[in-house]
Specification:
It contains 8 helices and 9 strands. The protein has 244 residues and is α/β, with parallel strands linked by helices. β4 and β5 form a beta hairpin.
Amino acid sequence: MDPSKAQIFILEVHPGAPGEPVACTSHTVNPAQGVPYEVLFYSEDETADISAQHAVFVDGRAVAVSPTLHSALTQLRPRTGEARYFWIEALCAASTDLGGARSSTGDEAVRAALQHSDHCAVWAGPLPGAVGAADGQAALDTVAWVAGVFYKPPYGLNDAGRRAAVHAALSALVRSAGWRKIWAFDRAALPGVATLYWGPCRLSWELVDRAAEILTREGSAFGGAPGDGVEALSGSLRGLALSS
């Protein structure tokens, strides 16, 4: 089929408060016509109980999804205001429809969806219980510091307690199943603009790539602050750069 004529499903994910069910409306669109939507990219946590399915509501029907996808949709949906539109392979690249029409199937739908999306949301998973939102964001800001965005690390040079908390968050990030699976992503196939999400925390994927390049190029010569978190980050980002 001509890719310009492919039909794909996208999900309109409606706003919702914490604790409310995830509600979506499905749409069949031709992505070549410039319909704005995001690709949601994530990897399943192999340590999770895959039998513990959760429900999201699509066109009023309950649809069973994995705990990883449920956590992503719960976190990434707007709290108020306008809906957010996603293409999600697990739900949208199907041979049957979600709401009344049919979509293109298999590889055809995947190629069309990736080719025409204007943004990719990369979900690294929820924050672990021991990591608060402030420390989680500081961990991602440390990646931005490595990339040269900040003059000094976000946790302060003279605050040992804060530095230890951020290093612990960094260690938790790079040892998480979601972060490890990012290495296996075919990033060349993803839309050019992407954002990494870790719970409520976020970082431009461009900065992840830039930090990986710097650490791979400079190695031990990089003038980063010492600590287990930065060491774990350095190793994982070097691996990320070499795998791209």
